[in-house]
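Shapes recur. One chain:

:::
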Amino acid sequence: MVIRLKNAEEIIVKCHVCGGRLEPTISDLPFCLGPTSIVVIKKLPVLECTNCTEFSIEDPVMEKVENLLEQTGEAAELEVIAYAA
């Protein structure tokens, strides 16, 4: 991802694993809530490394993910929900 500042400087977000460039993409990611409970969040906006495929979730998105996970129950073994921006 490239962030353009007002003075035309660019900040390139780098991968914390390999130093590659992170680019915004949409992905489906699993989250474990317990030893037998998994929640898959579909259409989640993430930053993915173009080199090693490591990903990062920006803070505002992670806050929404945490809220979604708090609303799901650990009783289900597998739950699939869609991320809504």
In short: Residues 1-5 have pLDDT under 50 and may be disordered. The beta strands are 2-4, 10-12, 22-34, 37-49, 55-56, 78-82. The chain has one domain: 2-82. Helices lie at 59-71.
